[in-house]
Specification:
By secondary structure, the protein is of the alpha/beta class. It has a single domain, classed as 3-Layer(aba) Sandwich (Rossmann fold). The protein has eight helices and eight strands, in the order βαβαααβαβαβββαβα. It has a five-stranded parallel β-sheet with strand order 2-3-1-4-8, sandwiched between helices. A three-stranded antiparallel β-sheet has the order 6-5-7. α1 (13-24) packs across α8. The longest helix is centred in the last third of the chain and has 24 residues, at 165-188. The structure holds BIS(adenosine)-5'-pentaphosphate (AP5), magnesium ion and zinc ion. BIS(adenosine)-5'-pentaphosphate (AP5) is lined by residues 7, 9-15, 31-32, 35, 52-53, 56-59, 64, 85-86, 88, 92, 123-124, 126-127, 136-138, 141-142, 162, 171, 201, 204.
Length: 216
């Protein structure tokens, strides 16, 4: 299955990506995670991306597209993949179609995680991420048993720099202006499946797996 996950910041793309990718046994490719790994590794790409990420803006398309092109050319993506956070505007969607065409592949489906504005703001303000394994927690909705320690790997939890309230507001504006039009783009090409991404995490995973199974 070649799957794209879309939805606003805080919709639960990263949370669900982990479970969906494991269920269908496909690699999870998250552009946000790749950028953050480059930031913490101090690479040139990380230095460039950080400026945009801290402001809540999109990293320029030519940088992001080249990174995704390289990643999709790797062997493990031949049999399928889950993209989390890419494409994020209509131009990137066109680029993705071009990359897949060149590889002789096509997208299977786009899953839209629908969540209301007020809920995503709550989710982002309480989010904590594990430095070691990348698992995503929430102080209120999915709390670790000890604050700041990952129950899965004992790694240290941190709050993302772009989860400050002012940056969250800007990311939501960027989503509305640049990413929401993607939903119409994929709906009009009949590639979109939407689910309500509210309620317990495992209920959302069940809904997602049920919606995606016909495309596997
Ligand atoms: P990215 O990392 O992709 O951030 P985002 O799209 O803003 O999405 P988030 O990761 O914030 O939210 P999520 O939907 O993954 O939610 P999560 O599962 O964590 O991108 C960051 C930046 O990188 C961008 O701003 C941009 O600068 C750059 N970038 C990335 N891709 C790019 C691209 N293609 N082009 C250009 N620039 C790009 O969940 C959130 C919280 O909610 C968690 O705490 C979780 O525990 C909790 N939660 C999850 N599910 C539930 C539930 N059902 N009930 C209650 N709480 C829940
Ligand atoms: Mg994420
Ligand atoms: Zn961990």
């Amino acid at each position: 299955m070649r799957l794209v996950l879309v939805g606003p910041p805080g919709a639960g793309k990263g949370t669900q990506a982990e479970f969906i990718a494991a269920h269908f046994d496909i690699p999870k490719i998250s552009t946000g995670d790749i950028f953050r790994a480059n930031v913490s590794g101090g690479t040139d790409l990380g230095r460039l991306a950080k400026k945009y990420m801290d402001a809540g803006d999109l990293v320029p398309d030519e940088v992001t597209n080249a990174m995704v092109r390289d990643r999709l050319a790797q062997d493990d993506a031949r049999e399928g993949f889950l993209l989390d956070g890419f494409p994020r505007n209509v131009a990137q969607a066109g680029e993705l179609n071009g990359i897949l065409d060149e590889l002789g592949l096509a997208l299977s489906v786009v899953l839209d995680l629908e969540v209301e504005h007020a809920e995503v703001v709550k989710r982002l303000s309480g989010r904590r991420t594990c430095k070691k394994c990348g698992h995503v927690w929430h102080l209120q909705f999915d709390p670790p048993s000890t604050a700041d320690v990952c129950d899965r790997c004992a790694g240290e939890l941190y709050q993302r720099d772009d989860d400050k309230p002012a940056t969250v507001r800007h990311r939501l504006d960027v989503y509305a202006a640049q990413t929401a039009p993607l939903i119409d783009f994929y709906r009009s090409s009949d590639q979109l499946v939407a689910i309500e991404a509210i309620g317990p995490v495992e209920d959302v995973t069940e809904r997602a797996v049920a919606a995606l199974t016909p495309y596997a």
